[in-house]
Amino acid sequence: MYQLKSLFIFLAAILAGVGVLAQSDTEKDVASRVDSLMNRMTLEEKIGQLNQLTGDGEVTGPVTLNQDYQQQIREGMVGSMLNVNGAEYTRKIQRIAVEESRLGIPLIFGYDVIHGYKTIFPVPLGESASWDLEAIEKAARIAAEEATAAGQHWTFAPMMDISRDARWGRVMEGAGEDPYYGSKVARARIRGFQGEDFSKDNTMLACAKHYVAYGAPRGGRDYNTVDMSMRRLHETYLPPFKAAVDEGVATFMSSFNELNGVPLTGSRELVRGLVKDQWGFDGFIVSDWGSIQEMIPHGVAADKYEAGDLAMNAGIDMDMEGKVYQQELKNLLEDGRITDVHINEAVRRILTKKFELGLFEDPYKYCDQEREERELLSDDNRAFARESARKSMVLLKNGDVLPLSKDLEDIALIGPLVQADDEYIGTWSARGEGRHVINVMEGFRNKLGDETNLSYAQGASFTGQSKEGFAEALETARQADAVVAVVGESAMMSGEALSRMDIGLPGVQKELVMELTKLDKPLVVILMNGRPLAIPEVDKKAPAILEAWLPGTEGGNAIADVVFGDYNPSGKLTASFPYSVGQVPVQYEHKNTGRPKVEDQRYTSKYIDGPNKPLYPFGYGLSYTTFEYAEPRLSQKEIGFDETLEVSVKVQNTGELAGEEVVQLYVRDMVGSVTRPVKELKGFEKIRLEAGQEKEVVFELEAEDLAFYTKDMEYKAEPGYFKVFTGSSSEDVQEGEFTLKR
Ligand code: BGC
């Protein structure tokens, strides 16, 4: 089959007068193959490689006259398409590029494969709560296997924007608030998507996005202005991107936002200077959707000509759905505003990836309908989606209610999310479909069979103010032995352009839950949402709360596994849940201030109407068993710059069930040339303990782990006194101390 295909392509290439394949047989390495291809390209064809157009899939911004995109591909004016899907369709479009354009250069197809392609995993924020890097990598691997079977070469993922603002809708797409953990997750996801070898037919290019600081918009409003110190940028927002380069990520995407007055898409300093020159990133950088011409409304370019100038000089290689490069690069070159060195560099970077993907050997190798039929939504993939969803769940509260007994006769399922299939897969759910979702009603039925009576009342809609459904819901609940309320956000309440001012339970859902708490029945509140929610009243009154996020295709089965005790929850939050939106931005890694909070002392740093601390902190999550921590033991009281400190902590499962625990390590530099946070995560390990079992976890710390940007913006550790903390969350810790010697 493969040989036939190659022969066909070979002949097609000869017929088209190309010789690309003959060339690939004779050229030894990618670089020289790229060079020799470039020698035969016209300026227009080179500019074409920098142009990415959208097909007819998901449209997230203005579309610029794309009806003629097939003709443009024929004319060599397009290097990449996004939102073109399926083995059959991508083959059709690829054929135009390969057989009908002068040089037959294959297209790269890109798509937002964010948390699965057809089999949908929990939203990334939820997935990150598993603290299970292998599972996170595997979910990305499965997503890549499915997407590549359906013609995709490139995913616009992972999103690695750190965010401490739950109002921002896109917190859902990231790994939470912490740069250390966020970097680990980014690397795991990149490994999963890219695998080890691009020349395979099931690996795809990953994309480090959105570069950078997109997760810190003022007011939490998407696309809004970002203004922050360079120290904050370097310490918090850049690390995942640097980690992505170290992991060998193939592409970057520049973000929509400005940072300190400069839109990232035009930031020569941060894009070309830092990513390409300083970090040595050798892949290519795509703009975000239309972000080149958005420099006009940003107010740093008068027109597309100036915007193109800024972007090309900044080092943006590919223009996503903007057509600015297509329209303006030639003029800019003629006017000497940009040089052919810039254009050639961008073309070279893009072609290199096409060669690495093996597209010149077989441009259709990702368009395999048989594989598509076989692999998408396979039983194995679904099974892992279930595994991934239950690993992501965080038990926020449990007053002896969970797990529920499978012998209950009557369970009432209440709330707008009980059987709202479409919502379970969240936004950015690629080709996922609600009709493939197992909802909570179905998951419970699968688990319990026909023995148990499952009754249902919606009670409330997502955002409506009507309480008309309360009476029925309460009556249904009254008849039951236990009540499970499934409440939260609809899919369209988190994700791009879905920021919220109020991050409580929307509509009258909180009131519904409050009414249910008055019934004096075993009540479990299951939350589905794409962001941290502020739910102090629910926390106060509801006996048990399970955070299930937007759990994906197998959500209902996974929830049933946890609710009925077939899986002992082990997730921990990666983003703090505030008491109130008024605390936002909120994170565990804060500074002490000169007047740290002292209860009842007026002139200290605090609110007069609520706590400083979040409701549920970073790293927090309960289990059906209990874990007891011993104090941390340090191998030395002092370490030198070239020594390693071992911090050991014994953890025992003191409950009656086997369970998993995420053991966490934090440090604090007590005195620095600049102020340092009260805690910074520096290590974690997820362990499994049988009932009664004890394990010792050993962390290693070196001077490099203690480094930060000093007063002179040098990245290094400073000698002095440190505290080290180990425990089960960022708040529940025990401490030790050591000195880093000069
Ligand atoms: C988003 C990106 C996404 C792109 C393509 C943009 O609106 O910001 O994250 O990859 O659209 O769909």
Question: Your description of this structure?
Answer:
The chain has 742 residues and is of the alpha/beta class. Helix 3 packs across helix 16, helix 8 runs parallel beside helix 9 (179-194) and helix 8 (133-149) runs antiparallel to helix 18. The protein has 24 helices and 27 strands. 54% of the residues are buried. It folds into 3 domains: 2-371, TIM Barrel, CATH 3.20.20; 388-583, Rossmann fold, CATH 3.40.50.1700; 627-741, Immunoglobulins (Immunoglobulin-like). It has a 6-stranded mixed β-sheet, with helices on both faces.
Helix amount = 25-40%
The strand line-up of the biggest sheet is 11-16-15-14-12-13
**Largest sheet properties:** 6 strands, mixed
Evaluate the radius of gyration: 27 Å
What's the CATH H-level homologous superfamily of the largest domain?
Glycoside hydrolase, family 3, N-terminal domain
- The CATH first-level class of the largest domain comes to Alpha Beta
Q: How many beta-strand elements?
A: 27
Low-confidence stretches: 1-27
The molecules bound to the chains, other than polymers, are: beta-D-glucopyranose
Structural class: alpha/beta
DSSP helical segment count? 24
CATH topology of the largest domain: TIM Barrel
Give the mean pLDDT: 95
| Shape type | globular
What's the CATH architecture of the largest domain?
Answer: Alpha-Beta Barrel
How far is it from the N-terminal to the C-terminal residue, by CA? 66 Å
Integer tally of domains: 3
Strand percent estimate = 15-25%
